[in-house]
Amino acid sequence: MSIFEYNGSALVAMVGKNCFAIASDRRLGVQLQTIATDFQKIYKIHDKLFIGLAGLATDTQTLYQRLVFRHKLYQLREERDMKPETFASLVSALLYEKRFGPYFCQPVIAGLGDEDKPFICTMDSIGAKELAKDFVVAGTASESLYGACESMFKPDMEAEELFETISQALLSSVDRDCLSGWGGHVYLVTPTEVTERILKGRMD
Amino acid sequence: MTKQQANWSPYDNNGGTCVAIAGADYCVIAADTRMSTGYNILTRDYSKIIQLADKSVMASSGFQADVRALQKVLAARHLIYQHQHNKQMSCPAMAQLLSNTLYYKRFFPYYAFNVLGGLDSEGKGCVFTYDAVGSYERVGYSSQGSGSTLITPFLDNQLKSPSPLLLPAKDAVTPLSESEAIDLVKTCFASATERDIYTGDKLEIVILNASGLRREYMELRKD
Predict the structure, then answer these.
(1) A5, A140 in Cβ contact below 8 A?
(2) What UniProt keywords apply to this chain's record, in alphabetical order (chain A) (predicted)?
(3) In whole angstroms, what is the distance from residue A202 CA to residue B149 CA?
(4) What is the value of pTM for the model shown?
(5) What does residue A101 show for φ and ψ, rounded to 5 degrees?
(6) Which residue of chain A has the CA closest to B184?
């Protein structure tokens, strides 16, 4: 089994009209055994910037801790929050630092940039950025997520419709992946508010 | 001196995706027409679908040389059946034959991933899905091949028919109409073509119903 498939994860972020949604599954496993069914994979950096981390759980937690450290320093020096594009470059740089002994993580970054324009991107474990205008996926369920998102996505969806779409895409995809599931965690972010919702899905 | 390993494989994967959906009185079987090897395209116009009997149509992805050989064996066995029984094989019977034929080569398998679609003896749609060595199951819908991991979750979501993942096993057919099922198949392939490099060029759709067999084609992205 690949090291990326040790814990299991499913992550997806989608762009809507002046909003974005980022969603993950809730399972933490050790190969075939499930250890936790409420494991957090999406972290808030600031009100308009979220990062989801797929892959080996120990590396995702360590990487998150380093990123929070770096962002807090940035806030102290610049007296403002980091823009999503800048944050993505930071994540990419941190990952590439470990080019010959990488973190086994795949990040999904979603935020609202200048003028509240939605920004999403993903990268591989050594920091190769992939910017997308529609959606990005990561984790053991990524192939299923590609198929589901490609069929269900429409540009410029409003917040409620975006929530429905990302939830359906996530739930149908994790139902076909043994290593992810046990419900879903969806963050729906608009310029004025952040809504966090738990999805109930197949608990297996 | 380390032991020498064989670097020649008798198998190759020609890629491609197949889908079949069973309805109340119809069955839709579809496959793309791209044949590839590695990163190259061999042809954009290769049919993976064959009609084995009046009411049985098989679509196969995988190693097309093995698929061709398998099709020949099944066609020959069907001809013998017709001579001996003076009638066409029913779809469930063909399903069992396919399973047995695949298992016959358990220790040097046909590298073929099959879906068999057709109408059962009551005229209801039926779809059977197989692995390479003949394990099979009657289902309401199925997808095999390189794009199957992209398509299957979407079908689970859209078909509103009991998923094969449910227990106890429920009656399989989808309540969708024939034209809705065809549109769904077209959407599936358009999406799979975007994200799977081995799927594309053209989509061939075969529809079986009480009036017989009909074929439709749709262009797909060629990149």
Answers:
(1) yes
(2) Cytoplasm, Nucleus, Proteasome
(3) 19
(4) 0.89
(5) -165, 65
(6) A151
